[in-house]
Amino acid sequence: MIIWGGTAARAVGISLAAVAAVLSALLICYWLPLDSVLERSFSVHKAHSVKDMENIFQLVRNVIPPLTTKKHKGQDGRIGIVGGCQEYTGAPYFAAISALKLGADLSHVFCTKDAAPVIKSYSPELIVHPVLDSPHTDEEVAKWLPRLHTIVIGPGLGRNDTLLENAKGIIEKSKVRGIPVVIDADGLWLIAQQPSLIQGYQRAILTPNYMEFSRLYETMFRTSVDSNDNHRCVLRLSQALGNLTVVQKGEKDIISDGEKVLVCSHEGSSRRCGGQGDLLSGSLGVLAHWAFLAGPEKTNGQNPFLVAAFGACSLTRQCNNQAFQKYGRSMTTTDMVAEVGMAFSKLFET
Ligand SMILES: *[C@@H]1O[C@H](CO)[C@@H](O)[C@H](O)[C@H]1NC(C)=O
Ligand SMILES: *[C@@H]1O[C@H](CO)[C@@H](O)[C@H](O)[C@H]1NC(C)=O
């Protein structure tokens, strides 16, 4: 894991690459406020120590609600997943079940009528609302929104205009209520068509893969991504969207809130399976709620969504790593989901 103030990656190119290699080998992290990097763009601040990597994990640990017998059902998170249509039923299932396995109390799925029985049949643990293609989606979802802590928009949403329009309505209503929103997959396609829908809403977290990231970047800047300066591109996209949190998924996950850039290179495996992103978005839904609730006091003044994103990325990678050790090439997302509990305790409860 490397944490660094985002800009000037090219300026510090060679030394950074060398330092980064040593640092990641030692699993050392470093934080830099952006300003200091701008001021001193030709040097990389000296790494503090192994303590700093430990620190970011510690910040994640700080926001995890303790398990006590005093709470009632729902207090540790009621997460809503918006997605699931005729073609795609796996994605919303993976996101919703991952949220539950991470420790959310309830996971709701808002999907189309024909996707609902399929998703229900995967799991009796999910609450499934067949409302996404209803003429009354707005009212149906509005009934539930006040009870939800985070909304995850996009897993299995597809690109049907009616569904995208309904997803848009849900984003707008969530904004009015100040509910944190995670946007993934075709939710990001919607944002690329209409960035103003989310621009300036700092409780949003976008989780694009490289393709989705490039599309968003081209929409905002009318130029393509500079793949030699990915950190800076992630930082710039976040700023252009009004400093909401952007998680660029890839070989390393690059996370920015417009001020800081954080790199998660926790060891996963060389195998990436379809659905892994849904595990990330679902668990991020829960962590975003916990971090938001805990606030900057518990995250040492750092943006809670940045901490949540780092937590979800490292957890997803840990699940990948554990499942790969068991199943190798035949690993699937179902195997990864089965590892959530163990991966979580390994990373955050030791
Ligand atoms: C989109 O979904 C709506 C509602 O389910 C349906 O009526 C319509 O035919 C779909 N459009 C396309 C192009 O598939
Ligand atoms: C975003 O963050 C940068 C860096 O901290 C700051 O200069 C800028 O004013 C912020 N923009 C918004 C819209 O908050």
TrEMBL record:
Class of this enzyme: lyase
Binding site for ATP: 249-253, 268-277
Main location: mitochondrion
Transmembrane segments: 12-33
Gene3D superfamilies linked to this entry: 3.40.1190.20
Record localization: Mitochondrion
Recorded catalytic activity of this chain's protein: (6S)-NADHX + ATP = ADP + phosphate + NADH + H(+); (6S)-NADPHX + ATP = ADP + phosphate + NADPH + H(+)
Entry GO MF terms: ATP binding; ATP-dependent NAD(P)H-hydrate dehydratase activity
One GO CC annotation: mitochondrion
Binding site for (6S)-NADPHX: G156, N209, Y210, M211, E212, F213, S214, R215, D278
SUPFAM superfamilies: Ribokinase-like
Keyword Manganese: no
Any one GO BP annotation for this protein: metabolite repair
CDD domains: YXKO-related
Residue ranges of every copy of the YjeF C-terminal domain listed in the record: 56-347
Catalytic activity, EC: 4.2.1.93
Keywords, ordered alphabetically: ATP-binding, Lyase, Membrane, Mitochondrion, NAD, NADP, Nucleotide-binding, Phosphoprotein, Transmembrane, Transmembrane helix
Cofactor: Mg(2+)
Similarity section: Belongs to the NnrD/CARKD family.
Entry function: Catalyzes the dehydration of the S-form of NAD(P)HX at the expense of ATP, which is converted to ADP. Together with NAD(P)HX epimerase, which catalyzes the epimerization of the S- and R-forms, the enzyme allows the repair of both epimers of NAD(P)HX, a damaged form of NAD(P)H that is a result of enzymatic or heat-dependent hydration.
NCBIfam families: yjeF_cterm (TIGR00196)
Protein name, per record: ATP-dependent (S)-NAD(P)H-hydrate dehydratase
Origin organism lineage: Eukaryota, Metazoa, Chordata, Craniata, Vertebrata
Gene that encodes it: NAXD
